[in-house]
Amino acid sequence: MSVIIAPIASSLPAFLATKAYTALAVLVDEHTKKHCWPQLRKLLPSKPLLIEIPSGEGNKHLQTAEKIWSQLTQAAFDRHALVLNLGGGVIGDMGGFCAATYKRGIDFVQIPTTLLSQVDASVGGKLGIDFQGFKNHIGVFQQPVAVLVDPDFLQTLPWRERRSGFAEIIKHCLIADASMWQRIRRLDLEAQPWPELISHSVEIKKQVVAADPTEKGLRKILNFGHTLGHAIETHFLGTDQHLLHGEAIAAGMIAEAFLSYKRGDLSESDLGEIEEFIFSIYGKIKLQSSDFDKIINLTLQDKKNQAGQVRFSLLTALGQCGYDVVVSKKEMKKALEYLL
Ligand SMILES: NC(=O)c1ccc[n+]([C@@H]2O[C@H](COP(=O)([O-])OP(=O)(O)OC[C@H]3O[C@@H](n4cnc5c(N)ncnc54)[C@H](O)[C@@H]3O)[C@@H](O)[C@H]2O)c1
Ligand SMILES: [Zn+2]
Q1: How far is the CA of 303 from the centre of ligand 2 (A)?
Q2: Is 245 a catalytic residue?
Q3: pTM summary value
Q4: Contacts of 272 (CB under 8 A, 6+ apart)
Q5: Which residues of 65-103 are buried (b: 16+ CB within 10 A; e: fewer)?
Q6: Which atom of ligand 1 is the closest one to the Cα of 246?
Q7: What CA–CA distances, in Å, run from 310 to 86, 179, 221?
Q8: Cα-flanking dihedrals φ and ψ of residue 130, to 5°?
Q9: What is the pLDDT of residues 233-242, one digit of tens each?
Q10: Quick one: which of 318, 277, 279 has its CA closest to 192?
């Protein structure tokens, strides 16, 4: 898997020079068309097929995928064509899925333009769409031919989206690099060394994925914070307390660090530092004890579960993570209480 972190003006022409494609499509949404497409357009040799889809998770479904496949078909794209996915995780997951299945698979390049997609979604080859309300329910594992990360695209990203992506950077530090955690926790959001953090996160994700591409074991550590975090995200979906993915994961990481502490794997002061830093950046979510049963039930849908047991990825120390830890409903309730 080749991930290049460099200005797009150098990485894209260098990539295109490596192989002759018969046709080229660029997938955008209305935001990346406005903010990112102008930089890309001038780097492309011929006029590509521009496919625009509406932004947002709510459009990451089969009907949009069908529109993408239709446009590739109408333009008579053959198996030697290329798709460039220019956008956040929605564009990358869905554009990658459409490319990986069109005529049994054509090449695609991820050009992530949100912090979350640069440090997480674009690396690792998980592609897919939501189906009947279930997230990423239909999909495949397929690696892109390249991932071209240009931190400059983040200049136009709304602040709340940047903060959301930062949660995955925090996660990578907590599961794999205690010394980087000690650095970032002393800085506020504005002062973070973004380009360095992006390469650092990409490196960690790449290494974990290379060791276990299809999530049979080790890759599960990337789910730290995500079992309760994802349930919290789903719980607030469509309400006026709607949370971005990273905002829910931030809360999930505190709750799951608490579970790690309860198992004796994390010291009280480590837990205190995690809680203090995350609350200082994200604030507290508006949780009530009456929400707990529904959130706990939602964890039963988690993809990591086996034989009806909810399995967590929990810290075994600062900078280390284990997986397949069975956690009871009672323990989950205690962890949620810790967020109040
Ligand atoms: N494949 C994976 O391993 C993986 C991992 C994590 C998340 N995901 C998926 O990623 C998706 C979330 O990704 P996301 O957080 O990037 O959300 P997103 O793709 O919805 O992008 C967020 C918003 O930012 C806008 N945007 C994108 N780039 C911009 C820019 N440079 N300037 C201004 N606006 C810009 C988008 O149009 C959108 O409105 C989810 O669907 C999730 O399932 C996948
Ligand atoms: Zn995540």
Answers
A1: 13
A2: yes
A3: 0.96
A4: none
A5: beebbebbeeeebeeebbbbbbbbbbbbbbbbbbbbbbe
A6: 15
A7: 35, 30, 15
A8: -85, 155
A9: 999 988 888 9
A10: 277
